[in-house]
Amino acid sequence: MGNDNRPVNLDIGTIKLPITAYASISHRISGVALVVSSFLLLWALDASLSSQESFSNLAGILAHPVVKLITWAISIGLIYHSLAGVKHLIMDMGYGETMRGGVIGARIVFSLTALGAVLAGVMLW
Amino acid sequence: MVTAVSSSKLRSGVFDWLVQRVTAVILLAYFIFMAFVVLRGVSYGEWAALYEQLWMKVFTSLAALSLAAHAWIGMWGVFTDYLTERLLGPRGNTMRSVMQWVTSLSLLVYVLWSVKIIWG
Questions:
Q1: Using CB atoms within 10 A of its CB, is residue B89 exposed (0-12), middle (13-18) or buried (19+)?
Q2: Cβ of B110 under 8 Å from any chain A Cβ?
Q3: Which of these CATH numbers, 1.20.1250.20, 2.30.180.10, 1.20.1300.10, 3.30.1120.10, describes B13-119?
Q4: What is the pTM for the complete model shown?
């Protein structure tokens, strides 16, 4: 501050971002992806409740290897978005609002998501 | 330029902030409940019987409405940050307007479809 001759770099692609920035953008990306996925989930709910035949048919579709990958991806998105959301609520209550708290919170959310992704994978395969 | 400070002329940022959190808690409760039910494994009979219960119909309706509100506020936040005149020139405003209409219509379809599934 006070030195107006310093070069200014606003090209975000060349700036090394803190983990909190990755946590924030991941929350947004997972949110947008979940809005799109929610239509697939509603379609699945419709198919699961229509009839016994339609339920069995859906079970067959969900067992397909490619569909399992999609289910896994949606599960990871749901797990991450939920954990990042809970972190938001905790911060709303006044905990972990410092830079240090934000870094720790982001690390916890990413670590628990990794664990959740492995668990979801184990359950799917 | 983004002229609207809030996501709706009828509402405030504080209202959106609160709705985003209340709906988040409802959605989290539904997600955890669903995870338990699905991971336990259900037959068609058990699954259909669960969705015949009145409390489940109400819970699912609340979750569907929460999803629509939560998604709308979230998408508004994303659109007003990236589909802007500053980033995209004048067409940024057109794109944002179009995307907000597409989002609104899609979420309306989502809610109507879920009402049909749950109560139909």
A1: exposed
A2: yes
A3: 1.20.1300.10
A4: 0.90
